[in-house]
Amino acid sequence: MLFKNITMLNENLDVEKERYVLVKGDRIAYIGDKPPAEPCGREYDGRGKLLMSGFFNAHAHSPMTLMRGYGENLALQDWLTKKIFPFEDKLDSNAVYWGTMLAMAESLKFGIVSTSDMYYFCEDMAEAVAECGAKSNISRSVTNITGEDPQTLTSMKENTDFYNKYHNTADGRIRVDMSLHGEYTSDARTARVLADCARDAGDVIMHVHLSETKLEHEECKQRHGMTPAAYMEKVGLFDVPALAAHCVYAEDDDMDIFRAKGVTVATNPVSNMKLASGVCNASKVIDKGVNLAIGTDSVASNNSLNFIEEMKTLAISSKVYYADPTLITPKDALRAATSGGAMAQGRTDSGILKVGNKADLIVLDISGPNMHPVHSLINNIVYSCSGGEVIMTMVDGNVLYENGIYSLIDIEKTVYEVEKATQRILERL
């Protein structure tokens, strides 16, 4: 497929106009100011359009689409204990499969090509992702509140079995991460056993919740005499590449740990603000040389997978919370949404539009009135887009979404099955 006469964001997120970009197989094969000499297949007229890397959602719980809008205007503990946990207790394989498929449809609509997911019924999630053509890093979250022998935990066994069966399947689109849900939902013995599993696996990323709330952060310091980040380092969870979600209350020394151990911070600005958890100091993350990525968290706490909205919220929340309008530039937000997220997922050949990289690309319609005048296209993408500008999403060179049409997802059936599964759960509560 050849994109011709199209504006693009290059590997440095600089704007280049009137470019020709050839996708051959699953890779970007050519970028230039003239058509390539070789046959191109489909030609796409890029006038009034922008080509850029797709977005990488670095923290999500995709099946929770079934809980969109279910628990609103509640304090975090009430939200969890009165609404979310009882609903999740009734989930089954069918509900998780269709909830994941709905999340993938919404993700593709908003330009998300790959998602770092943490949940359970992971095989059903993997099947949905494989069928719809998207990418995902999926992890079975391990908890151990009662202090059982970690080796006897169902979640630990499912974690290992899932890794052995699904890691690097679907032509590498599905990667399996390992996950400790958090410091406060397990014990040190469990964390160490999981860390050993990750080290033994070798090619794995550790996905954890970390310092999401003030209470979590301070209670960890009371229990262990150290922050959650220091605790994770001590028990060995950061001995492999890691993805730390939230980090709202991470301290200066924590940032030093992240940098030294190669930990990515996945900030979740909309969810954290909606649950009144706080605002991650993303600017300090960047200043400390730590990789920054963006997550949506679940639709239950976000209500949307609109990644452009997420970028804008990241930028403006940092400015107002830290009373500094210079914090988080549009390029910072775009980098976190693309290459930062790809790096967090271990997808080193994605997230940047350059020859040789995977063709995980999106096209935005930049002809609308909200996109003019163009003093800076980068500024307009982050601050003026609504999300509806995404008109094409391509994964590994395959067009999965274009102008409202899905190539591999039956969206009417997906919506029907989600509504039916949700109703069945509500009838059992």
Radius of gyration: 21 Å
The helix count comes to 15
Per DSSP E runs of 2 or more residues, the count of β-strands stands at 17
Please mark out the parts with pLDDT under 50 across 5 or more consecutive residues, or reply none. Answer: none
User: Which secondary-structure class do the elements indicate?
Assistant: alpha/beta
Overall geometry comes to globular
**Main sheet attributes: strand count, strand direction, barrel closure:** 9 strands, mixed
Percent range for β-strand residues: 15-25%
Proportion of residues in helical segments: 25-40%
End-to-end C-alpha gap: 50 Å
The pLDDT mean sits at 97
Concise synopsis of the structure shown:
The chain has 429 residues and is of the alpha/beta class. The chain is built from 15 helices and 17 strands.
Task: Give your account of this protein's structure.
It is a single chain. The protein has 15 helices and 17 strands. Strands 1, 2, 3, 4, 5, 14, 15, 16 and 17 form a nine-stranded mixed β-sheet that branches. The radius of gyration is 21 Å and the shape is globular. The relative contact order is 0.16. By secondary structure, the chain is α/β, with parallel strands linked by helices. A hairpin with a 2-residue loop joins β16 (398-402) and β17 (405-406).
